[in-house]
Amino acid sequence: MANSMGTRRAAIYCRISQDRGGAGLGVTRQEEDCRALSARKGWDVLTVHTDNDVSAYSGAPRPAWQELLEEVRSGYVDAVVCWHVDRLTRSPRELEDVIDLADQYGVELATVSGEIDLATPTGRMIARMLGAAARHEAEHKAERQKRQRRQAAEAGKIAGGGKRPYGYEDDRVTVRESEAAVIREGARRVLANEGLSSICRDWQARGIVSPAGKPWKPSGLRRLLASARISGRREHTPRGSWEHTRPLLGEIVADAVWPSIISHEDSDRLRAILSDSERRKRVEGSERRSYLLSGILHCAKPHTDGKPCGHSMHGRPRSGVPRYVCPNVPGTDSCAGTATNAERTDDHVRDMVLAALESPVFVQRLRAPDDEENKLYEEIRRDEEELEELARDVGERRITRKEWMIVRQPVEERLERNRAQLSKVSRAAVLLDFVGSFEDMQARWKKMNNSQRRAIVTACVRRIDVNPANPRRRWDPERFVFDWLA
After folding, report:
1. Cα 288 vs. chain centroid, distance in angstroms?
2. Which residue of 141, 160, 208, 229 has the fewest CB atoms within a 10 Å radius of its CB?
3. Three-state SS at 370
4. What is the pLDDT along the chain (486 residues), one digit of tens a residue?
């Protein structure tokens, strides 16, 4: 594989796992040492491949490493120079690939830390021993770092690295009040059952941007509002529990050293709401509807057995006129026999809801947490405290990791169920900034989008049954039977 003068064509490979300062000094030093070694051996250095701040142990893509392999396979180079075997890889599996390349293409390997001849059994044994030792060191380092992160989380300390968290100053502790006000607004609106897309569109129109200076996206807003950080609590997600995408919710392990922006109670409700995939489909789907009351109205036309149809009604125009209809859905009990003018129905339901919200007694009943909600919240807090206690038991070696995993599973399953249920029963937040005089509420209603209006309606009624039309009356408000929540 050497050229006509017997000189090998070499490629240098450099890698450093962590470059916190971003200066690339580690790989620069590696390259200097590798060039010096190549000069001593009389090799021509044709290319230099650098993977900066990329871990071989983590399995993250290494673009420069792939480029090097292509050069070897194409015959462009016949020697590889690196600082140590563990710079090539910390995976025994990948090391075997390197040995196979040496066999197939006659590639010679040189390392600054010592000679390794992959052409001999002894050289390969040394390379494998060094690779196994490097893997062992990497695994122990990862375990130590995992435990350190867990201990820091349990102490409520600030997580190192990363960008400044939204809502806080560069010290990660002091609240930035202008951003905190935005977080509180977003929390109120989600608790009021408004969709994330609706909030993002409103914020874009108002010039409210994300930490990167760009318009907010629903995914980023969901992660922000679901974070326990904004409630002054420390959240921990073991890196081994996720591969490519960090889960939305981690484990809350301690009160943090920084102040809260929203209350623990609101944070728990947000986390329950935003992790409920069915709720997300329901609310985000409603934003795409041009009909306010789709799914809220239900057909009450009797079947032949006297029982009401009960099927949900949806928007369907006829001759360009928007209507709500009981649809003709094959395989269901829908009767397809009830329809109502959408515009007049929307106005009627609006007036009925606003009139109900004028009553202080009605509003008080809606806002009062019921026994179910209080019970759910207590169960959630109790399960979270139990998980914290289990984590401490593992850390202090009172129980084994296997015992912890067995006990933890039913607690987490119960916690997930209760959070999902809590997101469905809590409805008071939607009314906080809306209730007032009839005229004030009318004015606020006009400024709202359908997602916000729908949240108001669903905070007041379970459903609205629509009876068949009276042929003698063009518009009959008595057709609509409201099932009020209070």
Report:
1. 22
2. 160
3. coil
4. 455 445 889 999 988 765 444 434 567 888 898 999 999 989 999 999 988 755 544 556 778 888 988 898 888 998 888 887 776 765 666 667 777 777 788 788 888 877 665 555 665 666 566 655 555 565 555 555 555 555 555 554 566 556 788 999 888 888 999 999 999 989 888 887 778 888 898 899 889 998 888 999 998 999 999 988 898 888 866 654 444 566 778 777 778 778 899 988 888 888 888 887 666 555 555 445 578 898 899 999 998 888 899 899 998 888 888 999 998 877 777 888 899 999 999 999 999 999 999 998 888 777 665 566 667 777 877 887 787 788 778 777 888 878 877 888 888 888 777 776 665 555 566 676 788 889 999 999 998 888 788 888 988 888 999 999 888 888 899 999 999 987
User: 301-329 burial, b for 16+ CB within 10 Å, e for fewer?
Assistant: beeeeeebbbbbbbbbeeeeeebbbbbee
**CB-based contact 190:199 (threshold 8 Å):** yes
User: Which helix (DSSP H) or strand (DSSP E) does residue 346 occupy?
Assistant: helix 342-357
- Rounded distance, CA 461 to CA 483, Å? 6
Angle at 248 between CA 243 and CA 252, to 5 degrees: 105
Q: Is the dihedral of CA 246, 213, 226, 229 positive or negative?
A: positive
- For residue 22, the 8-state DSSP code is S
Tell me the whole-structure pTM to 2 decimals: 0.48
Q: How far apart are CA 116 and CA 124, in angstroms?
A: 8
Q: Which domains does the chain have, with CATH numbers?
A: 9-141 (3.40.50.1390), 177-287 (3.90.1750.20), 292-369+426-484 (no CATH)
In angstroms, what CA-CA distances link 335 with 144, 281, 324, 338?
Answer: 65, 26, 14, 8
Structure tokens at 144: 């130590």
From the number of C-beta atoms within 10 Å of its C-beta (0-12, 13-18, 19+), residue 359 rates as exposed
CA 458, distance to chain mean position in Å, is 26
